[in-house]
Amino acid sequence: MDLASGLLLGLGGYLLIVTVLHFLFPESHLDWSNINLENIAMPEGFVWGVATASHQIEGDNTNNWTQFEQREGKEQSGKACDHWNLWAKDHELLSELGVNSYRFSIEWSRIEPVQGEWNEAAIEVYSQMIDSLIAKGIEPMITLHHFSHPVWFEDLGGFYNRENIVHFQNYCKKLFPYFSSRVRKWCTVNEPDVFSIMGYHMGMFPPGQRSPIKAIRVMKNVMIAHGEVYHELKQMSPDSYIGLAKNVTIFDPYRRWNLLHWLTSFALNYIWNGAIISALKKGRMYGVSVKQVKNSADFIGLNYYTHVLTSPFLPQTTEIDLPSRNHETVTEFGYPMYAEGLDRASKWLSKLNLPIEITENGVADKEDNLRPKHLKRHLWMIAKLIQEGIDIKSYYHWSLMDNFEWAEGYSMRFGLYHVDYETQTRTLRASGKAYQSIIKQHQNN
Ligand code: IFM
Question: Is domain 47-444 annotated with CATH 3.20.20.80?
């Protein structure tokens, strides 16, 4: 074969591969102008919720995050939404919205501020919160670890050291019996993927490290912690409904004709998503056994925000606009609004044969220009998925109110309620009214 024929053959083979990939892994985009977003119909029994997390709203915490904020000279979380004092009023906001479930997290650093010393007063406050929700007809869903933990745990090396997992187990086992007769729904951990990649590879979360190898080790350990806690809590209360909240970010090749972009997307999809699914399904992750993770969930929580267009030049920070398709709207966080990805993420998670709870979905949008449309597109997508037979039980909007958005501080506003941090006034946004009215329509049907 001469050089020209060889080159032609190579080119033909390359084109064949990218064409096959293109059709095997389509990146769906809908023409939203032809879709009636005013007609969202969820089945009876669908759960309407909102979500928050302790460190983002409570205020005056002392944990790995406050330590990091000070050490790195970041914006301080400070009083946040002062929810620790204002929670009863915030529960009224939940009633005003009409939600029938509320996902929030318990701050481990309040429960066990010093290793082995339990703060009964803090447990009592959470207990009162639970009673208040139940009295309002709002079912609590509790997250046990949402990015923040005690300083002593961080100083021991946190989830980087496998031998520290037992401390997380002790905290969960201590807390659970106080609430398990009143609370059925539990998330062990929130977003093991974001927690480990942002903290150990991107350096934007505590402990601010930059090593992909460390990030993978931490993700594996967090999943082991989830598995251990799942089995222990199920033994204590078999009727509990326990899962974890998984952030599914979809990685699509930026240039669909570029094999390197495809390869990057496959690698990232595996590291971020595939490894966790494999852990839950097969008890294996990154080529090693994590047997306690196999079958360790009664549901899978899906936190869905966007897709990321990949090339080998990966961004090393979230503080830039990521690439997007020309027709896509870029949100304030710098990533595109892509409700079609919720369809793809849910169908892909449905391989686990578990009920799906949409434990988070929302958008940073100060002026609330995009949020009403964002909310309706995602709800429309869920209704479609349910009609197609995907077992989605609930939708928890992120977030009830503006709050401390981690590395981005207070600059990103995700709330259905606007928060004035000076006066701690909450004001319902147009998107909040839209959600309220969709919930009401369903209650009247
Ligand atoms: O605010 C976060 C939340 O804590 C975890 N999931 C994504 C949200 C928005 O970025």
Answer: yes
